[in-house]
Amino acid sequence: PKSREDILTTNTDDFIIGDRVWVNGTKPGYIQYLGETQFSPGDWAGVVLDDHSGKNDGSVAGVRYFQCEPKRGVFARLHKLTRYPLLHATPPSSKLSDTPTPPPPIQRCLTPTRTPSPGSRNIREGDRVQVVSSSGPSKSGVLRYLGQTDFAAGEWAGIELDEPVGKNDGTVAGKRYFRCSPNYGLFSPAHKVSRVSGSLDRHRRTHNVGLRA
After folding, report:
1. Domain 19-82 CATH assignment equals 3.20.20.140
2. What is the architecture, at CATH level 2, of domain 127-195?
3. In the chain, fewer beta carbons within 10 Å around the N or the C end?
4. What stretches of 14-161 show up as alpha helix (H) in DSSP?
5. What is the pLDDT of residues 5-31, one digit of tens each?
6. CA angle 194-7-82, nearest 5°?
7. Which pTM was predicted?
8. Which InterPro entries does the UniProt record give (predicted)?
């Protein structure tokens, strides 16, 4: 088990490709890959660092996950990323802090496509689903979208939540994937979503029958 000191960030579900982060709270860069890898189980973040203090060019053991200059790529667990440098860390130089390297273009053609998990194969648009979160209680709602997105690689599920605890109205970065009320929309990697009951239409039919009775 991870010790408390090893966990720098608990709310890891909010990270998306293109985010500005600090690896271990000390090394600034941009997320270029999110997902599973062949070198170790679980979810990993591939980060392009501002300097050449990394370990690779976006490939590990012959498998390419993203593209960057040699020694600028590094992989880290999501809980080892922070959105700001830690207070006890060595402050970045004024050159880096004043003029950070702009995020590299996302190499979508080089990013491996995640094989749909067994759970994602069993869900369809309209199903009642539950999102498993590592940072809080699970969220329930109706699956409105399932597939690829422009904001991150892999298979994503767009969910209309039962409560206004989401992040959007079905639109991300100006592109609409589905429509719902503000703060009722949430996107999650498909492998974190599971079906909990029948479709929304079935619930509506049951509800209508009860009203007529």
Report:
1. no
2. Roll (2.30)
3. N
4. 94-98, 118-121
5. 467 777 777 788 888 999 999 999 999
6. 90
7. 0.47
8. CAP-Gly_dom_sf (IPR036859), CAP-Gly_domain (IPR000938)
